[in-house]
Structure formats: structure tokens, C-alpha cells
Write a structure and sequence with these properties.
- The complex is a heterodimer.
- Chain A is of the alpha+beta class.
- In chain A, strands 1, 2, 3, 4 and 8 form a five-stranded antiparallel beta sheet that branches.
- In chain A, β6 and β7 form a beta hairpin.
- Chain B is mainly α.
- Chain B is 61% helix and 3% strand.
- Chain B starts with 32 loop residues before the first helix and ends with a helix.
- Chain A: One of its GO terms (biological process) is DNA replication, synthesis of primer.
- Chain A: GO terms for molecular function: DNA-directed RNA polymerase activity; metal ion binding.
- Chain A: Belongs to the eukaryotic-type primase small subunit family.
């Protein structure tokens, strides 16, 4: 097979031997993407997910539900189209295959089909408005640049990636134990972070204010370069969620991994950053003095960071410290280095668009695969399948008998399986139950239609319910009555 | 009929009177035409006074006193029934007035909710419990057994706030967490599996949320009816009154440039030194230093400059030139120009965005790499002092400013800075960065007879 044939990206890439013939040049391009969307992208699964059980025959199903969801596509050459909507899995699939978007974003479910929004916008406010949207979180490792020295910006390696792992653990545990959510999907963002989709019905129906409240609940980190004290943990004890996160995840990770791997106390430049966080200058000076003296001496065989950390802890946590600000200083240091840093704006608004799982990241070629929170320690961003790798695997498989489930022949199969078994299937089961229960409840309720306010209105105006117009011949009515008629 | 004190329920004839109406029902009344308008104006004085108090960063105790004073001054009536009627009537009239745009609704909702919150807290605990049941909140008190099993965690939450779990607090309510967003946001309640355990004294939050949500929906319904029916039908009676009631109660929003007309790029450097408030100075300096600003900063500074009088073409040229060392002209056009045009209302839904007020800027939390938000709130003491000195504030004035900052009165801090830098007083206080700019230019102009 010549290079030309490989680059053509034609579907019938039959190979006659192993070796370099399978190799796909390592680029991200529209042709590769076309094949990906043609054979690997799990359109049907995405459709099932986004339908939340409304694609069945149950009378309680809302047939319009999927069609009211906004998608947006970023096409080649950065052309960006919003308010895409589809009425069936076929429409979704065909549009993706035809337009071959470099990125697919998922928006909220609106009150009406986004394609028809202009028709509705005129008749009063808020008629075209989001009505449901998953609770989402976005964690980006470049927000941790001030605490990792191995990489900066868009780079990620196995030394710093664990910061994402512990973020997942902290947030996931809280979402389940504190907030009672069950259907949570974590996704690798393709380069340097993770996204979280909370898909319980209750979560999807949260208002912006409630989303902001949850984001604020998680918010601890306060810093930017203009303020030194980046985390403040007042109070006599830590709030239960923070205490649990500290003892179960953050402390262990900081002391055993981050501290030694990033050499946080090994050099003056680095330990100064920690000393800066100690509000008592005399304590900080004492430690500084000790560490400067010990710079050259070879100490015990233990890692220098760990030794120094023990010294720091023993001074700060000794009974002698009376100063208020020192009480939680050790925890504050650990939190400021390890506690999850969320992008608050992403979570607070229903209309925020977020990249869809299983997209391919244009800069890395990696697929945005799900991460199982129960096994997140094992997740390795450097071995996530890339587009070219997947195409290579497809080639290797030889001619296919059936066009279904191509991903099983590739590394993507594992990700699709995780998606289905740990997320999609339990979710859909729960959705079906919800639809049934809600349908039955509505049947009961339809008997109690008349609200008491109508009764009062009748009494007030001494008219029949239907006659709500004012005629100018009724001179005895006051403006007050008119106001009431229209305002409550 | 006794004089109404907020703690006592008044006796009355058959009219339904609860001291704190929920504005869900309206008893049959006769209202004189003049009262219609006067009542509404009196209530508006209360709401406007509240709004001012909030803008000035008054502490909670000060706000309580303020609300009480405002209410006494404007809404009191020797007869309890009359007071309640005025309360209800004025509320409904203002609903009509303030239902008509998103901005008006937001303001009205915010003020009425604040008013309600304070009035609820004045009430005795029986009055409060009675109100709670009126809201038909289906939340039960936590059983003793469940309380025992959760006592440790509840105590932990209390201690994390610097409080203790007294015996009196043994009454807790179990509610879905989404009913008490502000308590959750502040980590002031224990939550478990989606339930929040609310102490009796936190119940205010519960009730206020219900009140707010009801009123929010009612306003939207009212607006629909207004637009579809009333406005036209009542154009000779109600409509002129309603429209007159609404004007100029929210303060100027600086979306149109005013007396100073245009500012061109060559002027910016100069006026930045003399007339920008600290928040904008900081952003301006950073963009010159880093040749970049993140989104929040670009919005805050960009809209401010628009309010100051920078035209779209000049704005595009300004940002492009500042970013040039890091961003090629091509990339600029691709990634940044659209947003700037959007801010000026030339793209998308063509909203001409208004520059951010102090309230909005203070409420924002800058993250890593951000320079927006209110520096009086977010800068460390050291950095803030240094910045003030660079602005030319004397060391005595710096102490005064820092004192305000420590008490979280950020706008007062900015006002003091203004006064120190310009050597003249600013009685109205600073509520908006563009107001700072305009006032500054005014002072300088009167000193030099020209735009400094």
C-alpha cells in the first residue's frame, strides 16, 4: 500500500501484509476523522444517553426531548456553528459524518427545538430558555502550574497527572455521599484535564443558582498572584467534607507523592513558596534557618522533602503554637497544593457548552475517553488511544464481516465498554423508572386542577372565572382590582 | 386595635392579617386612586434605601437597623390593618411596575427578598413557624434517633463555623439540599445523600428561598399579562402611572457615553494614570506588561473603556496593538476581534453590553492568571498598599483605606482612594468604575479647565 492510498482515507483500505503497511502517519486530519466518525464514534450510545429514556414507546416518553438539545460543531478552519439539533439518531449520525466536526459540544435541553428559537423569542421573555442540563465540572491541569514543576501549560506527564486523579476522587466522593448523585461520568478532556457530567434527573433540573451553590461548596482555593494566602481554613475544625477529603485523599497524596516527586522543599526557591504561607514570621524564619544550614549536609537516607516536611509539621502542630492562623496551617498548605481547582464559570450556567465524550482532541489526536472513578488511579493519559493508532488497529484487523461494533477490534472497545457498563446502562434503567413513576403520578394529579387562587379571585371580583375583561362601564371597580387581577 | 409592633400579632376584624404577608392572596379592599400611587412610592423609598445600603457594603447589623428605620419612616400606620393593606397594595402595584424587563425584575426580586428576609427575622419564633407552615414546606423535623446518629457531624459543622451545638439547636429540619442553596454554598449545613440538615436558626434561608422563587415566577406571569393585555387596555389609566413610577430609580448604567464624548487611543495612557479606578488601572497595567489578559479581564476592562468613550475601531486597534508581541494580527482577528465586536453589540444577539458596576465586579472571583475583580477585595494587604502608594495616596490615607478593606467595605475604600487622589470629597460614594472616571474627569477639568 502506498502512502497515497493511506492518505486517501478511503474506506476500503485492504492490506496484504503486516508491518509498515498498517502505519498511519501521525497526524490529526479531516480524513482520519471521517473514518473515525464513520466507524468508531459511538453515535447510538450518545443518542441513548442524550435521550435519557425518552426514545422508547412508553406513553410517558417525551418525544421532543432529544430534539430540544443543543449541539454545536467546530468545523475545520475554526468555523463554529451553534444551535444544531436533531430529531433522531440517524439525523445526528448523518450530520456528524457529513460535517466531520473537529469538535462537538453539548449544550442544554431547551424549552423548544433550538432550530425554532427565532419563532419563539418574540412572544414574551424566557420562552426560549434552557430547561435541563447536566451538572458539569471542568478541571484543567494548567490551573495547577504554580504547584507543578515537571510540566507547564498544556503538557502533562505521569508525575503531575495524579493531581487530576485526586481531584476526581475528592469531587466524585462528595457528589455521591454529600449530594446523593449516582449517575456521574468522568471524561478525559483529550489533553490536560478532565470533565465531569452529573446526569441524575435532579442534577439536570438544577437552576443556575443551585449550580452556583454547589460550585461554591467545592470552592476552597482563592488565589492568584496578587494574594499570598491562597487558602484559608478558619474555624476550630474542618467542615466534614473538607476533613474527609484531607484524611482520605489529600494528606496521603501530598506526603507520599507530590512532595517528593515535585521536590517541593528541596530548593530554596521552592520551599520559600511554602514558608510564605506561614503567617507567623518567626516560625518561618526558624525553618528557613534550619534548612539553609542543612543544604549541603547529607542527612539520613530519607528523602529531603519528607524530612523537612516532618520538621515543619512538628513546629506548627506542637502544642506551643497559640496563634490562630497557625492552627490549620499544615492543612492549608496541603490544600493549596492538592485540592481540586474547578473552573467555576463552567458549572454555574445552564447554557455553558461542554465538549462531548469520544471527540478527538485536534492537538494531541487523543480520544476523550471515559475514566472510571473507581479505577482512576490506573488511568494513564499518555496511553490513551490516538486517532492514528485506532486507524492502524482497524487496518490490522483485516476485512470486516459486519460493520457493527468496529470499536471492539480496537483499543476504543475498552472505553466504550466502560461507558456502557459503569454509566449508560444504570442511567437508562433509572431513567425508565423515573419516566414510569412520573407518568403514574401525573395521572393521579390531573384530578386536582383547580387552584385556590382562582377561588379567591372569584370572590374578589364577584365575577365568573371566565369573565376577566374590564369594561369601562363598570365605574365602581378600582384600579386596585385591576392590578390584582393581572398580578396574581 | 393595637399599634403594630412586628413581634405581636394584631387583633383585627375579619380581614386576614398576618404581620408579614406572603403576597399570595389579596383580601378584598377599597383603594383610593391617589393612595394607589402614593403607597407605591412609599414602598419604593424603602426598596431604594435598601439598595443603596447594600451598595455601600453595610454590615448585617447596620442593614437590619436601616430596614427597620426605612419601614418605620415610610410604611407605618397606627392601625395594623391599614399598615398591612398598604403593604400588600404597594407590593402589587410595584409588581406591575417592575415586571417589564429582566433588569427591573432582577432588581425588584432582589430588594423584595432582602426586605422579606429582614422582616422575617424580626418575628418571634412562633410567628416564624407559622409562616413556615404557610409555605407548606413538607420538611419534617429530624427525629431524635436520626439526630443522635448525626450529632457528631452536626457538631463538626457548627464548630467549623466557630459555633457550638447548643441544646436549643437540637431541632433540625431535613430538606433537599437544593432548597437551601446559600447554606450549601457557604458550607453552613451538613449534607448527606442529597439532604441538608438545617438548624432552626437557619430556617430563614429556607423560607426566603421559597418566597423568592414564588415571586420570581409571579413576576414573569405578570409581565406576560402586561405585554399581552394590560398595557394597551390601560393606556389611559394604569399605564402612565406605572411607567412614571419606574424611571430613574436604578441609577445610570453608563451604557451611553455622556458629557465627555469620545476618548481616542492616544488619550488612554494619560487618563489611565489620572482617572482610572484601581481595578481598571491594574488591568490596564497588566495588559501593557503581559501583552495579554484573560477573558474576565478583557470583559471588565473592555466594557469600561467602552463606557469611557472608546469607539469600536479604536478599541480593536488598542487591543490588537497591546497583544501584538504575543498574538499575530491574524490570530487576533480570529480569536479576539469577535468578542470585542460582540461587546459593542455588533455581533450575535446584538446586545450593547453595559460596563460592570462595582457590585458585579466585587462579586466576581478571579482565578489563577486573572487580574479582574475588585482589588480591594482580592489583593493581599502588601500588594494593595503598594498599589495605593503608586496611585499617589498618602500614607495616612492608605491606613484609612486599609481600615475599610479590613471591614470589607470595598466601595468605601475606593471612595476614600478617590478622595485622597483628587483632594476632593466624593459624597455619593463610588458605585461604578465609570462613575469614578467621570467624577475624576470632572474634578480635573474644573481644576485645569481641560481634560487632563
Amino acid at each position: 500500500m502506498t502512502k497515497e492510498q493511506a492518505d486517501n482515507g478511503r474506506d476500503d483500505m485492504v492490506i496484504d501484509g503486516p508491518g509498515q503497511a498498517n502505519a498511519v502517519p501521525d497526524e490529526f486530519n479531516a480524513n482520519y476523522l471521517r473514518i473515525y466518525y464513520g466507524k468508531l464514534f459511538p453515535h447510538a450510545d450518545m443518542f441513548k444517553w442524550m435521550s435519557y429514556g425518552n426514545d422508547g414507546k412508553h406513553p410517558g416518553c417525551d418525544k421532543s426531548y432529544f430534539g430540544r438539545r443543543e449541539f454545536s460543531f467546530t468545523l475545520e478552519n475554526d468555523i463554529y456553528i451553534r444551535f444544531q439539533s436533531f430529531n433522531s439518531v440517524t439525523e445526528l449520525e448523518n450530520s456528524i459524518k457529513e460535517k466531520c466536526p473537529f469538535k462537538i459540544d453539548i449544550g442544554p435541553v431547551y424549552s423548544v427545538d433550538p432550530a425554532k428559537r427565532h419563532a419563539y423569542a418574540q412572544s414574551g421573555d424566557n420562552v426560549f430558555t434552557p430547561v435541563e442540563r447536566e451538572l458539569v465540572f471542568d478541571i484543567d491541569i494548567s490551573d495547577y502550574d504554580d504547584v507543578r514543576y515537571c510540566c507547564t501549560g498544556a503538557d502533562v506527564c505521569l508525575e503531575c497527572w495524579p493531581l487530576m486523579t485526586i481531584a476526581i476522587k475528592v469531587i466524585d466522593t462528595s457528589l455521591r455521599d454529600d449530594f446523593g448523585f449516582n449517575h456521574i461520568l468522568w471524561v478525559y478532556s483529550g489533553r490536560r484535564g478532565v470533565h465531569c457530567w452529573v446526569c441524575d434527573g435532579k442534577a439536570r433540573r438544577l437552576t443556575n443558582e443551585q449550580r452556583a451553590a454547589i460550585a461554591d461548596y467545592f470552592y476552597v482555593y482563592k488565589g492568584n498572584e496578587n494574594s499570598h494566602k491562597k487558602i484559608s481554613l478558619p474555624g476550630l475544625v474542618l467542615y466534614p467534607f473538607l476533613a474527609r477529603s484531607y484524611t482520605e485523599v489529600l494528606k496521603g497524596f501530598f506526603e507520599a507523592k507530590l512532595l517528593p516527586n515535585q521536590n517541593l522543599l528541596a530548593s530554596e526557591e521552592r520551599y520559600e513558596k511554602i514558608l510564605e504561607m506561614i503567617p507567623d514570621a518567626s516560625v518561618a524564619s526558624e525553618l528557613r534557618r534550619r534548612w539553609q544550614e542543612n543544604k549541603r549536609a547529607s542527612m539520613s537516607k530519607d528523602d529531603i522533602n519528607i524530612v523537612r516536611w516532618e520538621q515543619l509539621k512538628s513546629i506548627l502542630q506542637s502544642g506551643k503554637q497559640k496563634m490562630q492562623g497557625l492552627r490549620r496551617c499544615v492543612e492549608e498548605i496541603v490544600f493549596s497544593y492538592t485540592y481540586p481547582r474547578l473552573d467555576m464559570e463552567v458549572s454555574k450556567h445552564m447554557n455553558h457548552l461542554l465538549k462531548a465524550p469520544f471527540c478527538v482532541h485536534p492537538k494531541t489526536g487523543r480520544v476523550c475517553v471515559p475514566i472510571d472513578p473507581n479505577n482512576c488511579d490506573e488511568f494513564d493519559p499518555t496511553t490513551v488511544p490516538t486517532l492514528s493508532q485506532l486507524l492502524e488497529e482497524l487496518n490490522r484487523g483485516g476485512p470486516r464481516q459486519d460493520a457493527e461494533n468496529e470499536w471492539d477490534r480496537t483499543s476504543l472497545g475498552e472505553s466504550v465498554t466502560i461507558f456502557r457498563t459503569s454509566f449508560l446502562q444504570p442511567l437508562l434503567k433509572s431513567c425508565k423508572e423515573e419516566i414510569e413513576n412520573s407518568y403514574n403520578a401525573k395521572l393521579q394529579q390531573s384530578k386536582n386542577a383547580l387552584s385556590w387562587s382562582h377561588v379567591s379571585l372569584k370572590v374578589l371580583l364577584n365575577r365568573t372565572e371566565t369573565d376577566l375583561s374590564i369594561s369601562s362601564t363598570h365605574s365602581s371597580e378600582t384600579l386596585y382590582e385591576v392590578v390584582l387581577m393581572y398580578t396574581y | 386595635m393595637e399599634v403594630v409592633q412586628s413581634q405581636r400579632k394584631s387583633s383585627s376584624n375579619n380581614v386576614i392579617v398576618s404581620i408579614l404577608p406572603l403576597y399570595r392572596s389579596a383580601p378584598p379592599l377599597e383603594v383610593r386612586l391617589e393612595d394607589f400611587e402614593f403607597f407605591a412610592i412609599d414602598r419604593l423609598r424603602v426598596l431604594k434605601g435598601l439598595s443603596d445600603g447594600l451598595c455601600r457594603g453595610k454590615k448585617p447589623e447596620e442593614m437590619e437597623k436601616l430596614v427597620l428605620d426605612l419601614w418605620k419612616a415610610n410604611m407605618r400606620h397606627p392601625q395594623a390593618v391599614e399598615e398591612v393593606n398598604k403593604d400588600i397594595i404597594s407590593h402589587f402595584v410595584l409588581r406591575l411596575v417592575y415586571c417589564r424587563t429582566e433588569e427591573l425584575r432582577k432588581w425588584f426580586l432582589s430588594m423584595e427578598t432582602t426586605l422579606f428576609r429582614h422582616r422575617f427575622r424580626w418575628g418571634s419564633s412562633e410567628a416564624q413557624r407559622a409562616l413556615m407552615s404557610e409555605f407548606k414546606l413538607p420538611y419534617k423535623a429530624v427525629s431524635n434517633a436520626e439526630f443522635e446518629s448525626l450529632k457528631d457531624k452536626l457538631g463538626q459543622v457548627a464548630r467549623s463555623m466557630g459555633q457550638t451545638l447548643a441544646a436549643a439547636d437540637a431541632i433540625f429540619y431535613k430538606v433537599p439540599f437544593e432548597e437551601v442553596p446559600d447554606l450549601v454554598a457557604g458550607r453552613r449545613v451538613f449534607i448527606h445523600k442529597g439532604h441538608a440538615y438545617v438548624a432552626i436558626n437557619q430556617v430563614v434561608s429556607l423560607v426566603v428561598t421559597q418566597f423568592r422563587s414564588y415571586l420570581s415566577k409571579a413576576l414573569i406571569l405578570t409581565n406576560r399579562k402586561w405585554t399581552s393585555t394590560i398595557r394597551e387596555q390601560e393606556k389611559d389609566r394604569l399605564t402612565p402611572i406605572v411607567e412614571a413610577l419606574c424611571t430613574s430609580y436604578l441609577g445610570p448604567d453608563y451604557s451611553q457615553q455622556q458629557e465627555f464624548g469620545e476618548i481616542s487611543i492616544k488619550d488612554i495612557d494619560q487618563v489611565a494614570k489620572t482617572s482610572f479606578p484601581l481595578c481598571m488601572r491594574h488591568l490596564f497595567e497588566k495588559v501593557k506588561e503581559d501583552h495579554h489578559l484573560k477573558h474576565g479581564g478583557r470583559m471588565q476592562l473592555g466594557l469600561f473603556l467602552k463606557g469611557v468613550g472608546l469607539k469600536l475601531d479604536d478599541a480593536l486597534a488598542f487591543w490588537k496593538a497591546e497583544f501584538a508581541p504575543k498574538v499575530s494580527a491574524e490570530r487576533f482577528d480570529k480569536e479576539y476581534a469577535y468578542n470585542i465586536r460582540h461587546n459593542y453589540g455588533r455581533e450575535g444577539k446584538r446586545t450593547d453590553y453595559t460596563p460592570y458596576s462595582c457590585q458585579k465586579i466585587i462579586s466576581v472571583t478571579p482565578g489563577i492568571g486573572d487580574h479582574h475583580g475588585c482589588p480591594y477585595r482580592h489583593f493581599s494587604e502588601e500588594n494593595l498598599r503598594a498599589a495605593l502608594v503608586r496611585m499617589g495616596v498618602s500614607s495616612r490615607a492608605v491606613e484609612d483605606v486599609m481600615d475599610k478593606v479590613h471591614n470589607r467595605h470595598y466601595q468605601l475604600a475606593c471612595t476614600l482612594t478617590f478622595e485622597a487622589v483628587h483632594g476632593s470629597s466624593c459624597d455619593a460614594g463610588i458605585n461604578h468604575p465609570n462613575q469614578y472616571f467621570i467624577d475624576s474627569q470632572r474634578v480635573l477639568q474644573s481644576k485645569n479647565g481641560s481634560v487632563a
